Backbone:
């Protein structure tokens, strides 16, 4: 059994981090829903920063919405 011990490639990623010195919370900027988010753990304001992180991998694809003409109606 082989295990991959190589580290993933890291990239500079814009993040929001908690302003509180006692809180270690942070979130990727692309995942926030507010232009100036509050910390989800302590409700302190957050500041912009940069972390070196692996690329975010999407695990699922978006569901394609059906057009009304694609729907089969049975009466």
Residues:
């Amino acid at each position: 059994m082989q295990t991959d011990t190589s580290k993933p490639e890291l990239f500079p990623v814009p993040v929001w981090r908690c302003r509180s010195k006692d809180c270690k919370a942070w979130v990727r900027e692309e995942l926030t829903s507010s232009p100036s988010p509050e910390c989800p753990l302590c409700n302190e304001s957050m500041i912009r920063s940069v972390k070196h992180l692996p690329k975010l991998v999407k695990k699922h694809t978006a569901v394609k919405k059906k057009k009304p003409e694609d729907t089969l109606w049975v009466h």
Q: What stands out?
A: Residues 8 and 57 are 12 Å apart (CA to CA). DSSP finds no helices and three strands in the chain. The mean pLDDT is 84.
